[in-house]
Amino acid sequence: MSYNIPSYGEKDMLNDALIAERSITSDYNSFTNECTNSKIRNVMLDLLNEEHDIQAEVFEEMHARGYYPTPFAEQQMINQTKKKFAQQAQL
Predict the structure, then answer these.
(1) Which of 12, 35, 40, 68 sits at 20 to 30 Å (Cα–Cα) from 83?
(2) Residue 64 placed within a domain
(3) Going residue by residue through the chain (91 aa), what tens digit of pLDDT does each one get?
(4) How many domains in the chain?
(5) Which residue range is the domain that position 15 belongs to?
């Protein structure tokens, strides 16, 4: 009996790692927000920071290899985004 086992390439593995890091940072952020013990909260913040660093490394590697292209931001888009967040901050 033969099985069709999908082969995962480098891009797939990096994408899986990026998705996992996004999930981990989201979970650690939620856990950190709900900590009532300051020592545990500080540990969670350290872990969250480490995971954000790992996520950034994976993203940068994907970007460098052309697996995650990012468009150049035009000045008009930058200004619109700044305005949007400034308005939200005033609420």
Answers:
(1) 68
(2) yes
(3) 567 777 789 999 999 999 999 999 999 999 999 999 999 999 999 999 999 999 999 999 999 999 998 888 899 988 999 998 888 878 7
(4) 1
(5) 10-90
